[in-house]
Amino acid sequence: MKSWQLVRLLAGTFILLSLALGVPGSPVFVSQWWLAFTAFVGVNLLQSALTHWCLMESILRKLGVPPGC
């Protein structure tokens, strides 16, 4: 799996997990503050789209995950 694929996989997982933990109707609701994590992930995706730089992708590459598209 390439680094860009892992970034999208992790972002999607983080969003779904934070929504499950932050929406009051969810059976695993913990706190509405988990929605801030959803916003954090969204802001980072927006930033990476505009600047063509992604911190998570840089970290994954340093861990040995191959780049590519």
UniProtKB/TrEMBL annotation:
All copies of domain Inner membrane protein YgaP-like transmembrane, residue ranges: 6-61
Keyword entries, A-Z: Membrane, Transmembrane, Transmembrane helix
Name of a matching Pfam family: YgaP-like_TM
Domain of life: Bacteria
Record-linked InterPro entries: YgaP-like_TM
Transmembrane helix as UniProt keyword: yes
TM region(s), chain numbering: 32-55
Name the record gives this protein: Inner membrane protein YgaP-like transmembrane domain-containing protein
Organism, as annotated: Polaromonas naphthalenivorans (strain CJ2)
